Amino acid sequence: MYITPNPKIRGLECYQWLNPLFKIGHEEKLTQDDLYLVLPEDRSQRLGEELQGYWDQEVLRAKTHKREPSLMKAIVKCYWKSCLVLGIFTFLEEGTKVVQPIFLGKMVSYVENYDPANSAALHEAYGYAAGLSACVLVWAVLHHVYFYHIQRVGMRLRVAVCHMIYRKSLCLSSSAMGKTTTGQIVNLLSNDVNRFDQVTMFLHYLWVGPLQAVAVTALLWMEIGMSCLAGMAVLIILLLLQSCFVMLFSSLRSKTAALTDERIGTMSEVITSIKTVKMYAWEQSFIDLITRLRRKEISKILKSSYLRGMNLASFFAVSKIMIFVTFITNELLDNLITASRVFVVVTLFEALRFSSTLYFPMAIEKVSELIVSIRRIKNFLLLDEIPQVNTQLPSDGEVMVDMQDFTAFWDEESETPTLQGLSFTVRPGELLAVVGPVGAGKSSLLSALLGELPPSQGKVSMLGRIAYVSQQPWVFPGTVKSNILFGKKYEEERYEEVIKACALEEDLQNLKERDLSVTGDGGTPLSAGQKARVSLARCIRQTLKEKITILVTHQLQYLEDTSQILILKDGKIVKRGTYSEFLKPRVDILSLFDKGNKQSEPSSVQGTPTLISESLGRSLQSPRTSLKDAAPEDQDTENIQVILPLEDQLEGKVEFKTYANYFTAGAHWSVIIFLILVNIAAQVAYTLQDWWLLNWANVKSGLYFGTNVEEAADVMFVLNWFLTVYSGLTISTILFGITRSLLIFYVLANSSQTLHNKMLESILRAPVLFFNRNPIGRILNHFSKDIGHMDDLLPQIFQDFIQTFLLVIGVMGVMVAVIPWVAILVIPFGMIFFVVQWYFLRTSRDVKRLESEAQSPVFSHLASSLQGLRTIRAYKAEHKFQKLFDSHQDLHSEACFLLLTMSQQLAVYLDVICAIFVTIVAFAALILADTLNPGEVGLVLSLIVTLTGMFQWCIRQSTEVENMMISVERGIEYTDLEKEAPWELEYRPPPSWPHEGRIYFTYVNVKYSLDGPLVLKNLDTLIDPREKRGIVGRTGAGKSSLITALFRLSEPEEPDIWIDGIWTTNIGLHDLRKKMSVAPQEPVLFTGTMRKNLDPFNEHTDEELWNALEENEIRILPNTILEKEMDDPLILLKNAEEAAGIFPNQELNPHLLHLLNLEGGFITTVPSGKPVTLRGITNQ
């Protein structure tokens, strides 16, 4: 069911609009369609563009004044007005809390001086009771108005910064991409931006807290004189100590963020390259690597957690310490103490409890962490962008691609240019073929034409609109049709013509839903050849006969059909001319390549990047290379349709088993039992302090007013006894409070580490099918945001809830013990609280699950965009993809906004109920004044005033704990995934296996999923030792599937593959995969050193590694390359070297079966001895 949103809703004015949602959530599971549409003022595009404008202005001002831009200034200028107004609300709210003790003192004084005949005093007391009740109610309204609006400001700021981060990622230059990683960008979007949500709630308490402390000090001075200074000195020392935590929090946050970047970046690479990882049996190597990174990360998190634990312990104990020190000082000064004074002092100190001992240190912590996050985000936003190159149109306006004296460097520090002195011109109707050996600069030439490689000298002029097919074809999550159209309007005749021209008809027939089949992350897997044809169809929206076409290829047999041939070597033009010009002097083209360079021979069509400049009618200035004469059809566009598979959503409440698994992951049951006992002991000591203070105040009042007549020695003994016990209770409260805080943070940090490691191992043991069905963003969401919640938020919220819950129980217990009739009110009000919380929690839990799931498409879209960045920029589709990102953010904001409003609605209801409770108790205490003593009235009223904010906070935190436990629930779900066959079995093949290399396929049948079609059907063949067997066939015929079956990436239906006397299903996966080596269809390099890529287990010497590199023509790299950190391998080695870089792994394994998977892949079986390397046999 879809709920129609009300665009007139503005926060707390009326909560009736939420009632339909609560009704649905109470009756059934909520879905994304049940949520309200995001309000116009909260939309990602609007917020992002507004903040981007302020940031652009700040960057210009910084350039003018020759200083570094400040993102903080841009944020302040954008949001200062709304924050300033909300600061006034905070000031008024805390002001009402300071007034409450005055009314309370007057009421207790009335009971102390109770005179049944004095009706005027009674009426005056009723006025004080009404004033106290009004203060409680006004505080509740102001508090929740403030929290609602300030949290909304935080949400808007987070959304705006996310918009800016994604926008920047679409504009990054190649050199900038080498300074960041996908993991860092994901971490910025998942963890760093969340600091905006957290800091806004507490920001104003940095100044309100100290101001309130000054006001309380003045009132205390009026009440008990200079004794109050001792208690305030404790608070000042604490505030100064917490202020010193700023540097510690900043330092730890900076180090933690860097480690998190590295961990998430490595996870992203592993998930993206999971087939390669599994075929090389590198899972354990990456598990060890990521576990080491996680161990370093958690050590920093644990230190931050201990600081948070000390802050929460101070919140628990500092008010009691202040009260204790104040009254001890008062006793030493021999000042008068009465019940009214005692509880006015107690209530005034309690007024500082949240603002000065919780919110102030929280503000310090969050601001210090925010400073680090803002610095990290600012550094990202200041990375270099693709430069603007505005070249001049030829005077005659002729359409062409013209490069003149072009020289460029990928690495600005390098002395050798990537391209040097290139000059050529291509006109409409011409086909330019660019050929050359590996590393000659072919891909760099296309990058220069696309504006990705800026010139150090020379210029490029391109007239028209670009279409581009990359060397590694890219498809985004969506239908095949949307991938082809890429935002263009559908024209059936033209569309069918392109499908036919790109030979996609047969491919579409093999797909269940033809061109409406969803592909990309989590969709129907396409072969590399099918992806290439889809990319080509995206490029060829019309015939190319009259277009400018530039083809980079190794397919020398097609040079005869070209208009021009450009041969590159070492970034320079070796030869340029037509095919006929090459024939006349009998030039041997192959001789222009490096001798023995295998890549110069005919290879795969798939790996040939193509750039087509379409000469069309209008001019358009590109943000990069100038692109004139843009297509009129650019006006005829539609939104790109991205489709992501739905995530399985858990239902119902978070089970007790989840809580048990969470805690036992961090500690043994004995430690957990000890933790429970420490919590109980801390609360008992805390509660007994109030009880003991009551008795002490009654004794002192009795001695002062003469109701207790004792011998002097007895009086001193009694007072010393009270003082000694009170001191012991205070010390116990401090010790138990600190112990439980540190212990719970230690246990939950260990739980987070254990769950992460279990998730990691479960993920890497999952079959490839799991990664086909789940987008990379969804998996990264579990390892970034969910783990981030377990690291930072959940332990703090859990500790806060346990602490507050025990405080509420203790307060209730003391109240009932002191004035038993209060139980008559406590029981029904307690039931009302429970029912309200239960009703809200059902809906809140579902919305939180939807919020967690709505984050996954954001990360998936980011990861997909970074993979296809050059294609997106070539088609000038940045704006379309930005709109898609904003739409994903808006879906997430729908759930976030509802969580915020539901939380505030629950809090308002609870505090209104509390205000009613306070009113009843206050007036009842006055009515029954003749049956109560002043100490009892003072204690109960001080406790009930404290209870007002604390009770709703406890209920809200209990709801928040369950909401946060959904991250744990999602994590535990990933620890129990379906697993591949074991890596090792009890039976291990002999070390010399395979000794011959005979492979027998016996009627092999393979499915990618249980309900999927057979991709290999009754395959029966024998490959003899030393036989070189080529496997050919059209895309989708099953070539890659055969390798998948051989490596058991998808298990055959029966044991039907036999290698040298052993069925492959009778041995462990690693025993099988380590005996084979593969050059995969989609080559990858991992961040790290070249040595780590070639030899992750450190099994080979430098000499062996260099021999392997030389065998594969990569000796052109510098001598230091083995130990060079490859922060972005795609930028360091570029595509050709990257593809070649996978071959040395075969050279390093001389006793294995070797497989090369190209578009027309082949298998070579090799006995012990030197391996044989063959070219692939294509289907041409």
UniProtKB/TrEMBL annotation:
- Give the InterPro entries listed for this entry: AAA+_ATPase (IPR003593), ABC1_TM_dom (IPR011527), ABC1_TM_sf (IPR036640), ABC_transporter-like_ATP-bd (IPR003439), ABC_transporter-like_CS (IPR017871), ABC_transporter_C-like (IPR050173), ABCC4_TMD1 (IPR030240), P-loop_NTPase (IPR027417)
Under what name is this protein listed? Multidrug resistance-associated protein 4-like
Name all ABC transmembrane type-1 domain ranges.
Answer: 84-349, 673-963
Key words of the record: ATP-binding, Membrane, Nucleotide-binding, Translocase, Transmembrane, Transmembrane helix, Transport
Q: Name one Pfam family in it.
A: ABC_tran
A Gene Ontology MF term for this entry?
ATP hydrolysis activity
The UniProt entry, under CDD domains, shows: ABC_6TM_MRP4_D1_like (cd18593)
